[in-house]
């Protein structure tokens, strides 16, 4: 058939085309009736011949010679006269494909290089798309080769009028796989135009999971941001003070701490707990040493100081031992001045804090926490709180509160143990000994010398000194014994109320070495201290 190329050109005159006869390829359409025998046309095509695009005989592409390229029929070639045949002749440059076509494309274009493919829309470069499984006898080689109207077809194809089967038909991949096989399309050009990427369409499980995860993360972030804004939102000073006052009114007691001078003017630390009834108990600790506990219950004021406390505050030095660790009422003279101004139960404190007009000053740090300073009214009150639900009252500076103090007053909700101590001491206060009595009373001591004679003729002279305490206070001291006004013994003692103590005493007879000599014995005893 190659020898008849010239005669075949004459049989098909040019219809207005200006195409150079030396062009690299001449586009030819050969059609046959749907009843043509398979391979009757394509079998005659030699190497480099242009493959025919029959409409119905799909097997022709399977019988094409080496290098034949299967091409889609066009609308113009779908129904030409049954017996019309057209061949093409490549010119001398037919072996050189057009510039710009990759090597991979050259190997997959089929037929003579440069032959126009009808399965590629105008203006697009063919790509090395991976073909599907080989077509069996009588099966179309490609989805678009199915006859129009054949069972399972999906209507006209994307590049012509020929029909193509729908999913599940011949030439389509098995269910679950995209076009191009289980691994998608190969080559640098991706899938055919219009078909979309493999797996395109409804999102898969992984993509749905990712979208759900992102949505959940966004919701969580929004919720967290909302919570942070709500927590960190600073309420107006008036609202903060009102919430603080309401919280304080619900306390069972308050504990106050501050700095103030003691009764003698020495700087000291004060801690006092006040219950809802106004009873109070606490401690005063001097910087220079000495610690005293106290209780305020109604009109009762009692104190119990350690030895260091009384060594400084006792009216007479000899009383320090008597007063040490003794609960003594009526001790207002040795308690810090203005101590009763600290007796503020929770309700009274809340009343002192409340105000309609509330300002605010710069933040301060109290106990390592950032705190707000509120200024109720115009009388110089300062209320320091830490934001929270409810706000925490940490410090107050109220006119008349804590007379004599040198620092603001720190405030805490009273601990249960501190409130229990207040209640216990408040019950005992009325029975405690008066401080005034303790420093003015004297021990009732009776000292006698028992035994011995007015004369002593033995090598030693012996007597017994007895001390009886009939008073109500304990005392200590020393008994000094003399014989004829010469001190012969010292007896330290500690006498409790009602005690009866005996101290045997022996002295040498100074004239015993003289036979028959005797002395007059005058024994005396006295107490030092113990008053």
UniProtKB/TrEMBL annotation:
Task: Specify the domain of life of the species encoding this protein.
Answer: Bacteria
Q: Where is the composition biased (Basic and acidic residues)?
A: 1-15
Q: Where is the composition biased (Acidic residues)?
A: 84-96
Instruction: State the coiled-coil residue ranges.
Output: none
Bias-annotated ranges (Pro residues)? 123-137, 167-177
From the UniProt entry, list the residue stretches annotated as the region Disordered.
1-203
Q: What is this protein called?
A: Uncharacterized protein
* Record organism: Actinomycetospora rhizophila
């Amino acid at each position: 058939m190659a020898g008849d190329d010239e005669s075949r050109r004459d049989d098909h005159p040019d219809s207005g085309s200006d195409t150079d006869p030396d062009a690299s390829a001449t586009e030819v359409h050969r059609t046959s009736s749907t009843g043509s025998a398979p391979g009757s046309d394509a079998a005659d095509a030699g190497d480099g011949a242009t493959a025919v695009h029959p409409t119905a005989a799909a097997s022709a592409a399977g019988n094409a010679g080496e290098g034949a390229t299967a091409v889609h029929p066009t609308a113009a070639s779908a129904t030409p006269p049954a017996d019309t045949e057209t061949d093409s002749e490549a010119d001398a440059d037919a072996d050189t494909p057009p510039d710009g076509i990759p090597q991979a494309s050259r190997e997959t274009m089929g037929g003579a290089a440069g032959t126009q493919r009808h399965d590629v829309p105008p203006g697009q470069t063919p790509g090395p798309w991976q073909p599907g499984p080989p077509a069996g006898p009588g099966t179309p080689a490609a989805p678009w080769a199915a006859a129009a109207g054949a069972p399972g077809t999906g209507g006209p194809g994307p590049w012509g009028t020929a029909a193509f089967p729908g999913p599940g038909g011949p030439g389509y991949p098995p269910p679950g796989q995209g076009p191009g096989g289980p691994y998608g399309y190969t080559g640098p050009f991706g899938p055919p135009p219009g078909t979309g990427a493999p797996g395109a369409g409804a999102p898969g499980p992984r993509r749905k999971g990712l979208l759900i995860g992102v949505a959940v993360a966004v919701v969580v972030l929004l919720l967290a941001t909302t919570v942070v804004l709500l927590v960190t939102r600073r309420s107006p000073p008036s609202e903060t003070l009102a919430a603080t006052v309401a919280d304080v009114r619900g306390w069972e007691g308050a504990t106050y701490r501050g700095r103030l001078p003691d009764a003698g003017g020495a700087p000291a630390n004060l801690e006092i707990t006040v219950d809802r009834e106004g009873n109070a108990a606490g401690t005063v600790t001097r910087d220079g040493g000495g610690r005293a506990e106290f209780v305020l219950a109604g009109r009762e004021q009692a104190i119990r100081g350690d030895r260091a406390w009384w060594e400084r505050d006792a009216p007479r030095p000899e009383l320090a031992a008597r007063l040490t660790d003794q609960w003594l009422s009526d001790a207002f003279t040795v308690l810090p001045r203005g101590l009763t101004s600290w007796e503020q139960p929770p309700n009274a404190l809340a009343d002192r804090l409340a105000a309609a007009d509330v300002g605010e000053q710069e933040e301060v740090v109290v106990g390592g926490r950032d705190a707000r300073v509120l200024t109720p009214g115009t009388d110089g009150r300062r209320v320091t709180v830490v934001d929270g639900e409810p706000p925490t009252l940490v410090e107050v500076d109220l006119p008349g509160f804590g007379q004599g103090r040198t620092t603001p007053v720190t405030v805490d909700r009273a601990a249960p143990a501190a409130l229990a101590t207040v209640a216990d001491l408040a019950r005992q206060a009325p029975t405690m000994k008066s401080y005034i009595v303790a420093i003015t009373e004297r021990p009732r001591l009776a000292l006698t010398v028992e035994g011995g004679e007015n004369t002593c003729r033995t090598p030693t002279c012996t007597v017994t000194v007895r001390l009886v305490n009939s008073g109500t206070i304990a005392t200590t001291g020393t008994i000094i014994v003399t014989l004829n006004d010469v001190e012969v013994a010292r007896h330290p003692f500690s006498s409790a109320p009602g005690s009866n103590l005996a101290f045997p005493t022996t002295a040498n007879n100074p004239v015993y070495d003289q036979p028959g000599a005797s002395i007059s014995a005058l024994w005396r005893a006295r107490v030092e201290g113990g008053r």
